[in-house]
């Protein structure tokens, strides 16, 4: 008689890309919600410090998993990585400060339009071609920004 | 500073992060990138301690500290799920725009637990901004 093996079935289910994709969306949604709860109660700087502290275990795990040469690939790689982190920090700090002033239902969707800047910069600096779908996205995003602001 | 100016800075900063990720994708392994982003966060955030108000005591209860740590953890875990999904064969052209829809979850949670509501104009704006962000993130498979 064959019987299903629940633990491995569950593991396979949770490890499916769609489940992971849904989990990512839900977790980021929870992150922005918790940010609002915190920004209202303790302010942007405190929220930023606690958020960074909560991210630290992930940094340590990443360092442990990658280790060695891959972690310190090249001076250029490190500069890009650090700059990425510093800009992320600037973005989160401003996001938390904005959350302390208006509702999360306004700020969170408004900030979601940030790929507008990525696409514009990629077109200007990397000479990437803007696709029709991205033009449609840009029009939607700009209209959304206008309606929310 | 007004909330709109703050949001604009966040949009530009995260937009630039997106560009940096494009440029550095062949220089940095995604897990190594997570490490450097967190180092950057620490370097950028720790000096902020100097700006903490000295006259008012920190209103840090156990619940607030737990929520703060959980906020960082949920962000990091979300990123891990995204990388894992890509590793498990997900098409970036589907997963990246899909995960860009996360503010919908925030709006839902804010409605359920904080009683936040949007008027029709704001509702339309939220849908357009989130949908526009998702469309802008779409990159067809190479």
**Major interchain interface with per-chain residue totals:** A-B, 109 and 111 residues
Number of domains of chain A: 2
Q: Determine the strand fraction of chain A and express it as a percent band.
A: under 5%
Let me know the largest β-sheet of chain A.
none
Share in helix of chain B: over 70%
Overall helicity of chain A: over 70%
- Globally, the shape of chain A reads globular
Structural class of chain A: mainly alpha
Q: Please count the helical segments of chain A.
A: 8
Helix count, DSSP H or I runs of 4 or more residues of chain B: 6
| SSE run of chain B | HHHHHH
Topology, number of strands of chain B? 0
Gyration radius of chain A, to the nearest Å?
A: 20 Å
Contiguous low-pLDDT stretches of chain A (5 residues minimum) are 1-11
Task: Point out poorly predicted stretches of chain B.
Answer: none
Give the termini separation of chain B: 42 Å
Radius of gyration of chain B: 18 Å
Shape of chain B: globular
Assembly type of the chains comes to: heterodimer
Structure characterization notes:
The complex is a heterodimer of chains A (149) and B (142). Chain A has 149 residues and is an all-alpha fold. Chain A folds into two domains: 7-102, no CATH class; 113-149. Chain A has helices spanning 6-14, 17-42, 44-66, 68-71, 75-99, 104-111, 115-125, 132-148. Chain A starts with 5 loop residues before the first helix and ends with a helix. Mean pLDDT of chain A is 86; it is low at 1-11. Chain B has 142 residues and is an all-alpha fold. Chain B has a domain at 79-142. In chain B, 72% of the residues lie in helices and 0% in strands. Chain B has six helices and no strands. In chain B, helix 4 (92-99) packs antiparallel against helix 6 (120-137). The chains are: A mainly alpha (149), B mainly alpha (142). Chains A and B meet through helix 2, helix 3, helix 5, helix 6 and helix 7 of A and helix 1, helix 2, helix 3, helix 4 and helix 5 of B.
């Amino acid at each position: 008689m064959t019987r299903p093996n629940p633990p491995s079935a569950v593991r396979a289910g949770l490890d499916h890309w769609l489940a992971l994709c849904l989990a990512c969306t839900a977790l980021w949604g929870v992150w922005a919600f918790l940010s609002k709860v915190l920004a209202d109660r303790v302010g942007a700087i405190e929220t930023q410090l606690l958020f960074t502290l909560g991210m630290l275990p992930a940094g340590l795990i990443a360092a442990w998993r990658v280790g060695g040469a891959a972690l310190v690939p090249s001076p250029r790689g490190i500069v890009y990585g650090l700059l990425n982190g510093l800009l992320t920090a600037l973005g989160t700090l401003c996001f938390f400060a904005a959350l302390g002033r208006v509702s999360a239902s306004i700020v969170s969707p408004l900030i979601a339009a940030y790929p507008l800047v990525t696409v514009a910069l990629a077109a200007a600096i990397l000479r990437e071609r803007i696709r029709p779908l991205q033009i449609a996205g840009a029009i939607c995003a700009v209209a959304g920004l206008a309606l929310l602001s | 500073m007004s909330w709109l100016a703050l949001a604009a800075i966040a949009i530009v900063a995260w937009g630039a992060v997106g560009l940096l990720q494009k440029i550095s994708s062949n220089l940095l392994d995604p897990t190594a990138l997570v490490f450097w982003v967190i180092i950057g966060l620490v370097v950028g955030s720790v000096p902020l301690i100097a700006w903490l108000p000295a006259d008012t005591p920190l209103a840090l209860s156990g619940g607030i500290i737990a929520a703060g740590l959980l906020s960082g953890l949920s962000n990091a875990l979300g990123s891990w799920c995204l990388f894992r999904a890509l590793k498990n064969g997900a098409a970036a052209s589907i997963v990246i725009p899909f995960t860009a829809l996360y503010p919908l979850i925030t709006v839902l949670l804010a409605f359920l637990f904080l009683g936040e509501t949007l008027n029709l104009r704001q509702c339309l704006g939220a849908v357009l901004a989130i949908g526009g962000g998702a469309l802008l993130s779409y990159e067809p498979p190479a």
